[in-house]
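Q: Given only this backbone (67 positions), what sequence would you predict?
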C-alpha cells in the first residue's frame, strides 16, 4: 500500500497470490517487486500485520530502519 495525500488514504499498489506464508515466499515476492520497480522501491516505512515471516522478510529486503 502507498499513502496518497490528495485523498488522505492508503491505496493498494499490488495484490499477490502465494502458495504459502513462509519467510522465503515473502522474501521472493518483495524481491520481485523491487526488481519490477527497477530497484526504486525504497520505502521510508513499512506497515504490516503481526506475521513474523513477513516482518523478517521485509527486514531483510529493506535493511534501512523501518517502522
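A: Predicted residues:
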Amino acid at each position: 500500500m502507498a499513502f496518497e495525500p490528495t485523498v488522505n488514504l492508503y491505496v493498494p499498489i499490488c495484490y499477490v497470490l502465494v502458495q504459502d506464508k513462509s519467510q522465503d515466499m515473502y522474501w521472493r515476492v518483495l524481491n520481485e517487486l523491487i526488481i519490477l520497480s527497477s530497484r526504486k522501491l525504497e520505502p521510508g516505512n513499512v506497515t504490516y500485520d503481526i506475521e513474523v515471516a513477513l516482518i523478517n522478510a521485509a527486514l531483510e529486503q529493506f535493511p534501512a530502519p523501518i517502522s
